[in-house]
Specification:
With 501 residues, this protein is an alpha/beta fold. The protein folds into three domains: 223 residues, P-loop containing nucleotide triphosphate hydrolases (Rossmann fold, 3-Layer(aba) Sandwich); 85 residues, no CATH class; 105 residues, no CATH class. The chain has a nine-stranded mixed β-sheet with strand order 4-3-7-2-8-1-9-10-11. Helix 1 runs parallel beside helix 16 and helix 3 runs parallel beside helix 9. It is globular.
Amino acid sequence: MTASAAPGRTALVDSVRTVLHDTARLYADDPRTRQLLVGQLERLDEPLRIAIAGKIKAGKSTLLNALVGEQVAATDAGECTRIVTWYRDGPAPRITIHPEAGGPVGLPVHRRDGELLVDLNGYPPDAVTRMVIDWPSQGLRAATLIDTPGTASLSTEISRRALRFLDPDDDTPTEADAVVYLMRQLHASDSEFLEAFRDQGVARAASVNTIGVISRADEIGGGRLDAMASAQSVAQRYRGEPALRGLCQNFVAVAGLIAQTARTLRQAEFAMLRELARTPGPDLHELLFTADRFLADDRQAAPLCTLPPDARRALLQRFGMFGVRLCVALLHRGTDSAAALAVELVRQSGLTELQHVLHNQFAERRDLLKARSALLALDAVLHADPRSGGAELARAVERIFAGAHEFAELRMLGALRSGAVPLPAAVVADAERLLGEGGAAVRTRLALPPDAGPVDVRAAAMAALSRWQDLAENPMTPRAATDTCRVVVRTCEGMLAGAAR
């Protein structure tokens, strides 16, 4: 069944909801377990929870600000970066901390130069389990973003907090439905972390809930104008490596600082950039050669630059050297307004591609990811504290995992991505697309444009069904591949039935 076929998706969530209710009744005498199960019921109706993780200084908070479109997350190494912080859409700005001892505590909301300032009001960061920031934002309506402390920090406690949130050691599933993992370049420690996060069951087969982001991508090319092209080539290479495909569903290159600044660009900054771009060619080239030369108050190096050093320093802090060079190049190409510059910077930063990937591979699978989180919680509860009547509920969980076609698709995707299915590469690519590797929407699966009509959808689904039925019945198809063929056939049948409705 496809992601846009609402009856199938609703049936999966309804099945999970029923088992959650039955299990909550079974554990009615255990307040802690019952509260966990009720929380999972409420979680089914909430936006997706997407955790942003990675090593310290990977640019997590900067990317979060770019996704939200406002500077709500602290990007320096302050005390707030040591706390797991949830960012939710809300009717009005509100900050709440949850200390280890006592109830939630509200904090005042202060902003300076567009940046949210958080004062913990005397609470040590180590004594706060989480902070919740409610903020009215279009970017937070589809998903709650969770900023985690940096892993591989010099402080073992900071690293432990992130690991404890994403990979709890008490047999409870993580509170995140999906993870965006940032890396400056892939190290062995990144692979080890992703392997640890990848939990048991169907998730272990598909890595459907993890996207890798090559952050600070402009640094790969040394800040040259072609730096993003170099970073995108690295992301493309990562996508093609079987070992990495088993850890992350996709890899995207993003220049986080450019993306954040583009989403919060000020008219005064545009005016400074336009003045800088008017500097005559030789002087401008000298200024943009290195950061030191850009900041130098040296009239001999660039005598015709009218932008003072303090203004250049402010631009460098907000855009970075790559961003300044990119902005000047765009202005020379005819970009004539702050709005137009912001749009182009968002696109060239890689943020547009990341937003597209988040929508196709997370948002369109919202119900599936939510159901998966709830089933993992149920499985943990039923095995940690077996009770009379619990065996039937455990079998119900297993039946959903085994019988729901959405999970069968995930298992097949995992097998295809790891190279375990003996099919030609062209056929594998077709199967991955039909199973939703690039997005769960019917038209995406069928490689049709978004505005394709029902007749085109039906014709494409019929062609795909015939193609895979022939392959499944072909005596030359390896037996090890027939299960994949049957799953793809079932997917095509579901799309065809949806088109008929």
